[in-house]
Write a structure and sequence with these properties.
Number of strands: 5
Shape: elongated
Strand order of the largest sheet: 2-1-5-3-4
Radius of gyration: 22 Å
Largest sheet: 5 strands, mixed
Oligomer: single chain
Strand content: 15-25%
Order of helices and strands: EEHEEHEHHHH
Number of helices: 6
Distance between the termini: 50 Å
Structural class: alpha+beta
Length: 177
């Protein structure tokens, strides 16, 4: 099988499987601080939905050409900044909606847990993106407050949860001003 990643070309033979080839392509892109954004296998576009166990286990001998296109991570992060800001705004809105129920002890902790899951997703992305974004963003500005929030959650201290949310966490979400 002929493989092309941007301007690099190489060949692989059986008994490799598609998972081996895709792993190598991904690792080569990652080594250059790039992410594969497009895959084409014998003139057929491959999406994440195609990457199921049956496909990944197929022998490379079945295919002739894999073409991969990658983009620099900073470029992808810059393109995603609008979405990051929009997601942070959604987190602020939903977090603010929890405040009064927390202060009056009526907030179901399952609602807070769902919000914390969304916050974790946001922090994971921002942590990866913080190197290309302005200083003062990223996980480091929120980490101590999230740790305190989790402690308050464990203690079921809803007043402290509300205070941490309102005064420490929500104002720091997407604080790029």
């Amino acid at each position: 099988m002929q493989i092309t990643l941007d301007q690099d070309h190489w060949e692989v033979d059986a008994p490799l499987t598609m998972v081996n080839v895709l792993t190598e392509v991904s690792e080569r892109a990652h080594a250059r601080s790039r992410i594969v954004t497009k895959l084409q296998l014998d003139h057929r576009t491959i999406t994440d939905r195609d990457l199921d166990p049956a496909f990944l286990a197929e022998s490379v001998a079945r295919f002739r050409q894999l073409t991969a296109v990658s983009q620099p991570v900073p470029e992808l992060i810059r393109a995603a900044e609008g979405s990051i800001s929009k997601y942070a705004e959604t987190l602020r809105t939903e977090g603010s909606a929890l405040l009064s129920a927390l202060r009056f002890g009526r907030a179901p902790l399952s609602a807070l847990d769902a919000w914390l899951g969304q916050l974790a997703d946001y922090l994971e992305f921002v942590d990866g993106a913080s190197a290309t974004m302005q200083a003062g963003t990223g996980v480091s500005t929120l980490t101590p407050w999230v740790q305190q929030l989790l402690e308050a959650r464990t203690d079921q201290d809803q007043i402290r949860l509300a205070d941490l949310l309102e005064y420490e966490i929500l104002p720091r979400l997407d604080a790029r001003g």
